[in-house]
Amino acid sequence: LQGPSNGSSPCHGDLNRQPSDRQLVSLILNRLKSQGLFDQFRRDCLADVDTKPAYQNLRQRVDNFVSNHLATHTWSPHLNKNQLRNNIRQQVLKSGMLESGIDRIISQVVDPKINHIFRPQVEKAVHEFLATLSHKEEASPIAAAPEEKPDTSVPIVHDAILPV
What we know:
The protein is mainly alpha-helical. It contains 6 helices and no strands. Belongs to the BOD1 family.
């Protein structure tokens, strides 16, 4: 399905032009988003995340880091809480614990779902989208290629043995 990629939408303009790969991917992603498929995936993962050891481990590490950092500060009514919060956030980000922890969470939560849950649903939605796209092309007389008419003067016999 390679067509000119001039940035025009495949839904407008010349009907016999097919969308480019980039446009096709964009159309499919927008369809998946509009059907709420990505939201469903997000809900499935979030419902499962707090039961996984990687999440519990990361949460414990961040809690300990924050507690240790706060232990070095003396509370006073004049303490700038926003500045302290931002400082802790920067220290957590610098430590790299989030990056490695999130990678482990993804491997425990998302990876097992990819082949058994997400891929079949995405493939089904893509096939349905492509079927509607090809159905629209078949329905459009401008987009459809002219069919060759069979020669009706000679009868067509398939898989038949004719006597000699």
